[in-house]
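Feature request disguised as a bug report, sorry. It would help if multi-protein outputs had a clear separator. Right now it looks like this:
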Amino acid sequence: MSQFLTTRELAALLRVKERKVYDLAAEGALPVRRVTGKLLFPREEIENWLAANGAGEKAARVESRPTAARPLVIAGGHDPLLEWALRESRSGIAAFLDGALDGLERAAAGDCIAAGLHIPEPGPDAWNVAATAERLSDEPVVLIEWAKRRRGLMFRKEPGRTIESLADARGLAFQSRQPEAGSELVLSLLLERENMKRDDLRLIPAVERSETDLAAAIAAGRADIGLGIEASARQFQLEFACLIVERFDLVVWRKAYFDPPFQKLMRFCASEAFHDRARTLGGYDVSRFGAVHFNARS
Protein backbone atom coordinates (compact mmCIF):
# COMPACT_ATOMS: atom_id res chain seq x y z
CA MET A 1 0.00 0.00 0.00
CA SER A 2 1.39 3.41 -0.99
CA GLN A 3 2.29 5.77 1.82
CA PHE A 4 0.67 8.60 -0.18
CA LEU A 5 -2.91 9.19 -1.36
CA THR A 6 -3.74 10.85 -4.66
CA THR A 7 -6.31 13.62 -4.89
CA ARG A 8 -8.88 11.17 -6.25
CA GLU A 9 -8.21 8.62 -3.51
CA LEU A 10 -8.53 11.24 -0.77
CA ALA A 11 -11.74 12.60 -2.28
CA ALA A 12 -13.19 9.08 -2.25
CA LEU A 13 -12.06 8.56 1.35
CA LEU A 14 -13.67 11.81 2.50
CA ARG A 15 -16.70 11.34 0.24
CA VAL A 16 -16.28 14.79 -1.26
CA LYS A 17 -15.58 16.08 -4.75
CA GLU A 18 -11.98 16.36 -5.97
CA ARG A 19 -12.27 20.12 -6.33
CA LYS A 20 -13.01 20.34 -2.59
CA VAL A 21 -9.72 18.57 -1.89
CA TYR A 22 -7.89 21.08 -4.11
CA ASP A 23 -9.57 23.97 -2.27
CA LEU A 24 -8.66 22.64 1.18
CA ALA A 25 -5.08 21.95 0.13
CA ALA A 26 -4.80 25.51 -1.20
CA GLU A 27 -6.01 26.82 2.18
CA GLY A 28 -3.47 24.71 4.05
CA ALA A 29 -6.24 22.74 5.79
CA LEU A 30 -4.83 19.33 4.76
CA PRO A 31 -1.39 17.73 5.20
CA VAL A 32 -0.01 17.67 1.66
CA ARG A 33 3.21 17.33 -0.32
CA ARG A 34 3.82 18.87 -3.73
CA VAL A 35 5.97 16.73 -6.00
CA THR A 36 6.67 17.87 -9.60
CA GLY A 37 3.46 19.87 -9.62
CA LYS A 38 1.27 17.08 -8.23
CA LEU A 39 -0.52 16.91 -4.89
CA LEU A 40 0.24 13.88 -2.70
CA PHE A 41 -1.27 13.36 0.73
CA PRO A 42 0.73 11.38 3.37
CA ARG A 43 -1.53 8.49 4.35
CA GLU A 44 -0.45 8.37 8.01
CA GLU A 45 -0.86 12.12 8.51
CA ILE A 46 -4.27 12.06 6.84
CA GLU A 47 -5.39 9.18 9.09
CA ASN A 48 -4.21 11.09 12.18
CA TRP A 49 -5.96 14.19 10.90
CA LEU A 50 -9.21 12.26 10.49
CA ALA A 51 -8.89 10.49 13.85
CA ALA A 52 -8.58 13.78 15.70
CA ASN A 53 -12.27 14.56 15.22
CA GLY A 54 -13.79 11.36 13.87
CA ALA A 55 -13.82 10.46 10.18
CA GLY A 56 -17.53 10.89 9.53
CA GLU A 57 -17.85 14.17 11.41
CA LYS A 58 -14.69 15.57 9.82
CA ALA A 59 -15.71 14.64 6.31
CA ALA A 60 -19.07 16.37 6.73
CA ARG A 61 -17.37 19.49 8.02
CA VAL A 62 -14.87 19.40 5.13
CA GLU A 63 -17.66 19.33 2.56
CA SER A 64 -19.50 22.27 4.07
CA ARG A 65 -16.44 24.41 4.75
CA PRO A 66 -16.42 27.63 2.65
CA THR A 67 -13.40 28.40 0.50
CA ALA A 68 -11.72 31.73 0.07
CA ALA A 69 -13.73 33.74 -2.44
CA ARG A 70 -12.15 35.43 -5.43
CA PRO A 71 -13.87 38.38 -7.12
CA LEU A 72 -16.12 37.25 -9.96
CA VAL A 73 -13.89 38.99 -12.50
CA ILE A 74 -11.90 37.99 -15.57
CA ALA A 75 -8.78 40.12 -15.92
CA GLY A 76 -5.95 40.14 -18.44
CA GLY A 77 -5.62 40.99 -22.11
CA HIS A 78 -8.42 42.72 -23.95
CA ASP A 79 -10.42 40.65 -26.41
CA PRO A 80 -13.62 41.85 -28.14
CA LEU A 81 -15.04 38.33 -28.46
CA LEU A 82 -14.47 37.61 -24.76
CA GLU A 83 -15.95 40.95 -23.76
CA TRP A 84 -19.05 40.20 -25.85
CA ALA A 85 -19.41 36.61 -24.59
CA LEU A 86 -19.29 37.70 -20.95
CA ARG A 87 -22.21 40.05 -21.55
CA GLU A 88 -24.20 37.83 -23.89
CA SER A 89 -23.90 34.68 -21.74
CA ARG A 90 -25.26 36.56 -18.69
CA SER A 91 -22.75 34.67 -16.61
CA GLY A 92 -22.48 37.51 -14.10
CA ILE A 93 -18.70 37.61 -14.56
CA ALA A 94 -17.27 41.11 -14.85
CA ALA A 95 -14.32 42.09 -17.05
CA PHE A 96 -11.25 44.11 -16.11
CA LEU A 97 -9.14 43.70 -19.24
CA ASP A 98 -6.08 45.90 -18.76
CA GLY A 99 -3.28 43.77 -20.17
CA ALA A 100 -2.02 40.19 -20.07
CA LEU A 101 0.77 40.92 -17.60
CA ASP A 102 -1.63 42.82 -15.36
CA GLY A 103 -3.99 39.84 -15.47
CA LEU A 104 -1.24 37.40 -14.57
CA GLU A 105 -0.38 39.45 -11.48
CA ARG A 106 -4.03 39.76 -10.49
CA ALA A 107 -4.43 35.99 -10.81
CA ALA A 108 -1.42 35.45 -8.55
CA ALA A 109 -2.81 37.93 -6.01
CA GLY A 110 -6.24 36.25 -5.94
CA ASP A 111 -7.97 39.28 -7.46
CA CYS A 112 -9.83 37.43 -10.25
CA ILE A 113 -11.18 34.00 -11.17
CA ALA A 114 -9.45 33.98 -14.57
CA ALA A 115 -7.10 36.01 -16.73
CA GLY A 116 -6.68 36.27 -20.49
CA LEU A 117 -3.10 35.77 -21.69
CA HIS A 118 -1.29 36.10 -25.03
CA ILE A 119 2.33 36.04 -23.94
CA PRO A 120 4.77 34.87 -26.63
CA GLU A 121 7.43 32.31 -25.73
CA PRO A 122 10.43 30.75 -27.49
CA GLY A 123 9.56 28.02 -29.95
CA PRO A 124 6.99 27.62 -32.71
CA ASP A 125 3.40 28.33 -31.64
CA ALA A 126 4.47 28.68 -28.00
CA TRP A 127 2.25 30.88 -25.86
CA ASN A 128 1.47 31.45 -22.18
CA VAL A 129 2.57 28.11 -20.68
CA ALA A 130 6.00 29.11 -19.34
CA ALA A 131 4.65 32.38 -17.90
CA THR A 132 1.79 30.53 -16.20
CA ALA A 133 4.08 27.82 -14.84
CA GLU A 134 6.56 30.36 -13.51
CA ARG A 135 3.99 32.60 -11.81
CA LEU A 136 1.23 30.15 -10.84
CA SER A 137 2.76 26.66 -10.63
CA ASP A 138 1.85 26.38 -6.93
CA GLU A 139 -1.74 27.46 -7.49
CA PRO A 140 -4.73 25.29 -8.49
CA VAL A 141 -5.15 26.71 -12.00
CA VAL A 142 -5.76 25.39 -15.48
CA LEU A 143 -4.81 27.10 -18.75
CA ILE A 144 -7.42 26.65 -21.48
CA GLU A 145 -7.50 27.94 -25.03
CA TRP A 146 -9.91 30.74 -25.82
CA ALA A 147 -9.06 31.41 -29.47
CA LYS A 148 -6.32 31.94 -31.98
CA ARG A 149 -6.24 35.53 -33.24
CA ARG A 150 -4.68 37.14 -36.31
CA ARG A 151 -2.54 40.08 -35.21
CA GLY A 152 -0.86 42.56 -37.50
CA LEU A 153 -0.58 46.15 -38.66
CA MET A 154 -3.75 48.23 -38.90
CA PHE A 155 -3.79 51.51 -40.79
CA ARG A 156 -5.97 53.82 -42.86
CA LYS A 157 -6.04 53.21 -46.59
CA GLU A 158 -4.17 55.85 -48.57
CA PRO A 159 -3.45 55.90 -52.33
CA GLY A 160 0.00 54.68 -53.25
CA ARG A 161 0.88 53.37 -49.79
CA THR A 162 1.71 49.69 -49.29
CA ILE A 163 2.38 48.27 -45.83
CA GLU A 164 3.32 44.65 -45.37
CA SER A 165 5.88 44.68 -42.55
CA LEU A 166 7.10 46.72 -39.59
CA ALA A 167 9.87 48.09 -41.80
CA ASP A 168 7.15 49.74 -43.89
CA ALA A 169 5.95 51.57 -40.77
CA ARG A 170 9.14 53.63 -40.43
CA GLY A 171 8.30 57.32 -40.27
CA LEU A 172 4.61 56.77 -39.51
CA ALA A 173 3.07 57.77 -36.18
CA PHE A 174 2.91 54.39 -34.42
CA GLN A 175 0.26 53.90 -31.74
CA SER A 176 1.49 51.80 -28.81
CA ARG A 177 -0.29 50.10 -25.91
CA GLN A 178 0.38 50.13 -22.15
CA PRO A 179 3.48 48.20 -20.96
CA GLU A 180 1.29 45.49 -19.33
CA ALA A 181 -0.37 44.63 -22.65
CA GLY A 182 0.55 41.34 -24.27
CA SER A 183 0.63 43.10 -27.65
CA GLU A 184 3.70 45.04 -26.50
CA LEU A 185 5.48 41.71 -25.92
CA VAL A 186 4.39 40.54 -29.36
CA LEU A 187 5.67 43.81 -30.85
CA SER A 188 9.09 43.19 -29.29
CA LEU A 189 9.14 39.67 -30.77
CA LEU A 190 8.21 40.91 -34.24
CA LEU A 191 10.76 43.72 -34.15
CA GLU A 192 13.46 41.20 -33.25
CA ARG A 193 12.43 39.00 -36.17
CA GLU A 194 12.87 41.95 -38.53
CA ASN A 195 16.17 43.02 -36.91
CA MET A 196 14.59 46.27 -35.79
CA LYS A 197 14.45 48.21 -32.52
CA ARG A 198 11.70 50.30 -30.97
CA ASP A 199 13.74 53.39 -31.81
CA ASP A 200 13.16 52.54 -35.47
CA LEU A 201 9.45 53.31 -34.95
CA ARG A 202 8.01 56.79 -34.43
CA LEU A 203 6.07 55.94 -31.29
CA ILE A 204 3.57 58.56 -30.17
CA PRO A 205 3.58 59.39 -26.43
CA ALA A 206 -0.04 58.48 -25.66
CA VAL A 207 -1.03 54.83 -25.19
CA GLU A 208 -4.33 53.09 -25.87
CA ARG A 209 -5.46 50.48 -23.35
CA SER A 210 -7.58 48.13 -25.47
CA GLU A 211 -7.69 46.62 -28.95
CA THR A 212 -10.81 48.67 -29.70
CA ASP A 213 -9.31 51.95 -28.49
CA LEU A 214 -6.20 51.30 -30.58
CA ALA A 215 -8.25 50.90 -33.75
CA ALA A 216 -10.40 53.92 -32.88
CA ALA A 217 -7.31 56.12 -32.46
CA ILE A 218 -6.02 55.16 -35.89
CA ALA A 219 -9.43 55.56 -37.55
CA ALA A 220 -9.74 59.04 -35.98
CA GLY A 221 -6.30 60.08 -37.25
CA ARG A 222 -4.62 60.36 -33.86
CA ALA A 223 -2.05 57.84 -35.13
CA ASP A 224 -1.14 56.37 -38.51
CA ILE A 225 -0.57 52.73 -37.65
CA GLY A 226 -0.51 50.21 -34.80
CA LEU A 227 -0.23 46.52 -33.98
CA GLY A 228 -3.70 45.13 -33.34
CA ILE A 229 -6.03 42.25 -34.06
CA GLU A 230 -7.97 41.80 -37.28
CA ALA A 231 -11.36 41.92 -35.54
CA SER A 232 -10.77 45.49 -34.37
CA ALA A 233 -9.37 46.58 -37.73
CA ARG A 234 -12.52 45.31 -39.43
CA GLN A 235 -14.76 47.06 -36.90
CA PHE A 236 -13.26 50.44 -37.86
CA GLN A 237 -12.84 49.59 -41.57
CA LEU A 238 -9.05 49.81 -41.42
CA GLU A 239 -6.57 48.06 -43.66
CA PHE A 240 -4.88 45.06 -42.06
CA ALA A 241 -1.60 43.22 -42.72
CA CYS A 242 -1.32 40.02 -40.68
CA LEU A 243 2.10 39.41 -39.09
CA ILE A 244 1.41 36.60 -36.61
CA VAL A 245 -1.27 34.23 -35.33
CA GLU A 246 -1.30 34.33 -31.54
CA ARG A 247 -3.01 32.05 -29.03
CA PHE A 248 -5.20 33.77 -26.46
CA ASP A 249 -5.72 31.53 -23.40
CA LEU A 250 -7.60 31.82 -20.13
CA VAL A 251 -5.82 30.83 -16.94
CA VAL A 252 -8.67 29.82 -14.63
CA TRP A 253 -8.81 29.17 -10.89
CA ARG A 254 -9.82 25.51 -10.80
CA LYS A 255 -12.67 25.91 -8.30
CA ALA A 256 -14.13 28.79 -10.31
CA TYR A 257 -14.01 26.65 -13.46
CA PHE A 258 -16.61 24.29 -11.95
CA ASP A 259 -18.75 27.01 -10.38
CA PRO A 260 -22.04 28.01 -12.09
CA PRO A 261 -20.95 31.42 -13.53
CA PHE A 262 -17.95 30.07 -15.43
CA GLN A 263 -19.82 26.94 -16.50
CA LYS A 264 -22.56 29.19 -17.88
CA LEU A 265 -19.94 31.02 -19.93
CA MET A 266 -18.49 27.71 -21.16
CA ARG A 267 -21.90 26.42 -22.23
CA PHE A 268 -22.58 29.64 -24.12
CA CYS A 269 -19.25 29.37 -25.91
CA ALA A 270 -20.32 25.97 -27.23
CA SER A 271 -23.36 27.57 -28.89
CA GLU A 272 -23.81 28.44 -32.55
CA ALA A 273 -24.31 32.09 -31.56
CA PHE A 274 -20.75 32.22 -30.20
CA HIS A 275 -19.25 30.65 -33.32
CA ASP A 276 -21.29 32.96 -35.55
CA ARG A 277 -19.98 35.97 -33.64
CA ALA A 278 -16.38 34.80 -34.01
CA ARG A 279 -16.86 34.45 -37.79
CA THR A 280 -18.55 37.85 -38.05
CA LEU A 281 -15.82 39.67 -36.11
CA GLY A 282 -13.15 37.99 -38.25
CA GLY A 283 -9.59 36.93 -37.55
CA TYR A 284 -10.56 34.29 -34.97
CA ASP A 285 -10.12 30.51 -34.90
CA VAL A 286 -12.16 29.00 -32.06
CA SER A 287 -11.94 25.40 -33.25
CA ARG A 288 -9.86 24.38 -30.21
CA PHE A 289 -11.75 26.40 -27.63
CA GLY A 290 -11.40 24.76 -24.20
CA ALA A 291 -8.26 22.74 -25.03
CA VAL A 292 -6.06 22.41 -21.93
CA HIS A 293 -2.48 23.65 -22.35
CA PHE A 294 -1.34 23.59 -18.70
CA ASN A 295 -2.77 22.03 -15.54
CA ALA A 296 -1.02 23.11 -12.35
CA ARG A 297 -0.98 20.92 -9.25
CA SER A 298 -2.96 18.20 -10.98
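(second protein starts here, but nothing in the output says so)
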Amino acid sequence: MEVILLERIEKLGQMGDVVKVKPGFARNFLLPKNKALRKTKQNLEHFEKQKAQLEADNLTHKKEASEVGAKLDGLSVTIIRAAGESGQLYGSVTSRDIAEAVSKKGIKIAKQQVTLDRALKTLGLEPIRVALHPEVSVDIVANIARTDEEAKQQLKLGRAVITTEESEPERSPAPEDVN
Protein backbone atom coordinates (compact mmCIF):
# COMPACT_ATOMS: atom_id res chain seq x y z
CA MET A 1 0.00 0.00 0.00
CA GLU A 2 1.28 3.46 -0.85
CA VAL A 3 0.85 6.30 1.63
CA ILE A 4 1.76 9.98 1.89
CA LEU A 5 3.65 10.75 5.11
CA LEU A 6 2.30 13.68 7.12
CA GLU A 7 5.36 13.78 9.41
CA ARG A 8 8.85 12.35 9.55
CA ILE A 9 8.84 8.67 10.46
CA GLU A 10 12.17 7.17 11.53
CA LYS A 11 13.51 4.58 9.04
CA LEU A 12 10.65 5.35 6.62
CA GLY A 13 10.83 8.90 5.25
CA GLN A 14 10.23 12.63 5.53
CA MET A 15 7.00 14.63 5.47
CA GLY A 16 5.45 14.54 2.00
CA ASP A 17 7.25 11.38 0.86
CA VAL A 18 5.15 8.77 -0.89
CA VAL A 19 6.29 5.41 0.47
CA LYS A 20 5.19 1.83 0.03
CA VAL A 21 4.39 0.06 3.31
CA LYS A 22 2.71 -3.16 4.31
CA PRO A 23 -1.09 -2.81 4.53
CA GLY A 24 -1.19 -3.83 8.20
CA PHE A 25 1.36 -1.17 9.20
CA ALA A 26 -0.69 1.48 7.38
CA ARG A 27 -4.06 0.31 8.74
CA ASN A 28 -2.95 -0.26 12.33
CA PHE A 29 -0.39 2.50 12.91
CA LEU A 30 0.06 5.19 10.26
CA LEU A 31 -3.56 5.94 9.35
CA PRO A 32 -5.19 5.82 12.84
CA LYS A 33 -2.49 8.06 14.32
CA ASN A 34 -2.77 10.58 11.44
CA LYS A 35 0.83 10.07 10.44
CA ALA A 36 -0.07 9.31 6.82
CA LEU A 37 -2.79 9.39 4.17
CA ARG A 38 -3.60 6.76 1.55
CA LYS A 39 -2.12 7.71 -1.81
CA THR A 40 -5.03 8.81 -3.96
CA LYS A 41 -5.41 11.69 -6.39
CA GLN A 42 -7.70 13.52 -3.93
CA ASN A 43 -5.33 13.00 -0.99
CA LEU A 44 -2.34 14.22 -3.03
CA GLU A 45 -4.24 17.44 -3.86
CA HIS A 46 -5.38 17.77 -0.23
CA PHE A 47 -1.81 17.31 1.01
CA GLU A 48 -0.43 19.94 -1.41
CA LYS A 49 -3.03 22.45 -0.13
CA GLN A 50 -2.17 21.78 3.51
CA LYS A 51 1.59 21.26 3.10
CA ALA A 52 2.53 24.78 4.26
CA GLN A 53 0.32 24.50 7.35
CA LEU A 54 1.69 21.03 8.21
CA GLU A 55 5.28 22.26 7.88
CA ALA A 56 4.54 25.27 10.10
CA ASP A 57 2.92 23.03 12.73
CA ASN A 58 5.89 20.66 12.53
CA LEU A 59 8.35 23.52 13.10
CA THR A 60 6.36 24.71 16.13
CA HIS A 61 6.26 21.23 17.64
CA LYS A 62 9.97 20.72 16.90
CA LYS A 63 10.86 24.03 18.60
CA GLU A 64 8.83 23.09 21.71
CA ALA A 65 10.46 19.64 21.76
CA SER A 66 13.92 21.20 21.47
CA GLU A 67 13.23 23.44 24.47
CA VAL A 68 12.09 20.49 26.57
CA GLY A 69 15.04 18.46 25.24
CA ALA A 70 17.48 21.10 26.45
CA LYS A 71 16.08 20.69 29.98
CA LEU A 72 16.08 16.88 29.77
CA ASP A 73 19.47 16.27 28.15
CA GLY A 74 21.77 14.45 30.55
CA LEU A 75 19.14 14.32 33.32
CA SER A 76 19.54 11.53 35.85
CA VAL A 77 16.45 10.02 37.49
CA THR A 78 16.55 7.68 40.47
CA ILE A 79 14.26 4.66 40.55
CA ILE A 80 14.13 2.68 43.82
CA ARG A 81 13.34 -1.03 43.43
CA ALA A 82 13.70 -4.20 45.50
CA ALA A 83 16.51 -6.44 44.28
CA GLY A 84 18.32 -9.60 45.26
CA GLU A 85 21.90 -9.82 46.50
CA SER A 86 23.22 -10.32 42.96
CA GLY A 87 21.64 -7.07 41.77
CA GLN A 88 18.76 -8.75 39.94
CA LEU A 89 15.46 -6.83 40.32
CA TYR A 90 12.28 -8.51 41.57
CA GLY A 91 10.44 -7.38 38.42
CA SER A 92 11.57 -4.79 35.91
CA VAL A 93 11.63 -1.05 35.28
CA THR A 94 9.21 0.02 32.54
CA SER A 95 8.85 3.09 30.36
CA ARG A 96 5.97 4.15 32.61
CA ASP A 97 8.27 4.11 35.67
CA ILE A 98 10.83 6.24 33.86
CA ALA A 99 8.18 8.72 32.63
CA GLU A 100 6.84 9.09 36.19
CA ALA A 101 10.36 9.65 37.57
CA VAL A 102 11.02 12.36 34.97
CA SER A 103 7.64 13.98 35.73
CA LYS A 104 8.62 14.18 39.43
CA LYS A 105 11.60 16.30 38.31
CA GLY A 106 9.13 18.81 36.81
CA ILE A 107 9.26 17.86 33.13
CA LYS A 108 6.15 16.12 31.82
CA ILE A 109 6.70 13.33 29.27
CA ALA A 110 4.51 10.45 28.12
CA LYS A 111 5.50 6.81 28.53
CA GLN A 112 5.28 6.42 24.73
CA GLN A 113 8.17 8.87 24.38
CA VAL A 114 10.51 6.65 26.41
CA THR A 115 12.37 4.24 24.12
CA LEU A 116 13.43 1.01 25.81
CA ASP A 117 15.24 -1.51 23.61
CA ARG A 118 15.29 -4.17 26.33
CA ALA A 119 13.82 -4.89 29.75
CA LEU A 120 15.65 -3.24 32.67
CA LYS A 121 16.06 -5.99 35.24
CA THR A 122 19.30 -5.16 37.06
CA LEU A 123 20.63 -2.46 39.37
CA GLY A 124 22.85 0.20 37.88
CA LEU A 125 23.00 3.22 35.61
CA GLU A 126 21.10 2.72 32.35
CA PRO A 127 21.14 5.14 29.39
CA ILE A 128 17.58 5.80 28.16
CA ARG A 129 16.51 7.50 24.92
CA VAL A 130 13.51 9.86 25.05
CA ALA A 131 11.95 10.75 21.68
CA LEU A 132 10.21 14.10 22.14
CA HIS A 133 9.52 14.64 18.43
CA PRO A 134 10.32 12.60 15.30
CA GLU A 135 13.37 14.84 14.83
CA VAL A 136 14.31 15.49 18.49
CA SER A 137 15.50 12.87 20.95
CA VAL A 138 17.64 13.14 24.08
CA ASP A 139 19.43 10.73 26.38
CA ILE A 140 18.81 10.53 30.12
CA VAL A 141 20.22 8.19 32.76
CA ALA A 142 18.04 5.92 34.89
CA ASN A 143 19.76 5.21 38.21
CA ILE A 144 18.17 1.96 39.42
CA ALA A 145 19.00 1.25 43.06
CA ARG A 146 17.62 -0.29 46.27
CA THR A 147 17.98 2.85 48.43
CA ASP A 148 18.69 6.55 48.02
CA GLU A 149 22.13 6.09 49.59
CA GLU A 150 22.95 3.33 47.13
CA ALA A 151 21.76 5.56 44.26
CA LYS A 152 24.12 8.35 45.36
CA GLN A 153 26.98 5.89 45.60
CA GLN A 154 26.23 4.52 42.11
CA LEU A 155 26.28 8.04 40.67
CA LYS A 156 29.63 8.72 42.33
CA LEU A 157 31.15 5.42 41.17
CA GLY A 158 29.50 5.43 37.74
CA ARG A 159 28.51 1.76 38.01
CA ALA A 160 26.21 -0.58 39.90
CA VAL A 161 26.86 -1.20 43.58
CA ILE A 162 26.39 -4.84 44.46
CA THR A 163 26.81 -5.42 48.19
CA THR A 164 27.94 -9.05 48.08
CA GLU A 165 31.14 -8.18 46.22
CA GLU A 166 32.05 -5.26 48.43
CA SER A 167 31.09 -6.70 51.83
CA GLU A 168 33.33 -9.76 51.53
CA PRO A 169 36.91 -9.04 52.56
CA GLU A 170 39.53 -9.78 49.98
CA ARG A 171 41.36 -12.98 50.71
CA SER A 172 45.04 -13.05 50.17
CA PRO A 173 46.36 -16.18 48.51
CA ALA A 174 47.77 -18.75 50.88
CA PRO A 175 51.55 -18.89 50.89
CA GLU A 176 52.77 -21.96 49.10
CA ASP A 177 55.37 -24.25 50.57
CA VAL A 178 58.64 -23.98 48.74
CA ASN A 179 60.76 -27.12 48.91
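Even a blank line would do. Unrelated, but nice: Strands lie at 2-5, 18-20, 36-38, 76-80, 88-93, 114-115, 120-122, 124-133, 136-145.
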